[in-house]
Design goal:
Layout lengths: L6 E5 L6 H14 L3 E5 L8 H8 L5 E5 L8 E5 L5 E7 L4 E6 L9
Parallel strand pairs: 1-2
Antiparallel strand pairs: 2-4, 3-4, 5-6
Length: 109
């Protein structure tokens, strides 16, 4: 089986309005990605319901870096039936993680 995750990265310039979340949802649906990285969410609190509204229920797991006041904010979400992310490192300005096949073992080195 060929393992080819699709990644979508977008500067969303804020997810504080329902209209913006709806627009991002349309973009995500069209992209058909298995991993979505959103930057500049401007959300100081990220809840599961916001992630589901913005990305859809298929994105069943995520990491986030909340915004500071109205600056920054990152969400990295994925469809666990297609890919697995682990070893997350959430820093002041970044989120990184290892990408693996679903149910696969961690890669070495």
């Amino acid at each position: 089986m060929i393992y080819e995750p699709k990644v979508m990265v977008s500067n969303v310039r804020g997810l504080n309005s329902r209209a913006r979340r709806s627009g991002v949802r349309s973009m995500v649906d069209t992209a058909g990605a298995s991993i979505v990285c959103l930057q500049e969410t401007k959300l100081s609190v990220v809840t599961r319901s916001i992630v589901m509204e913005t990305l859809g229920a298929v994105f069943d797991d995520y990491f986030c870096l909340p915004a500071t006041d109205t600056r920054g904010g990152i969400i990295v979400a994925w469809d666990s039936s297609k890919v697995r992310l682990d070893n997350a490192h959430i820093d002041t300005n970044s989120v990184t993680a290892r990408v693996n096949p679903p149910g696969g073992t961690q890669g070495g080195g």
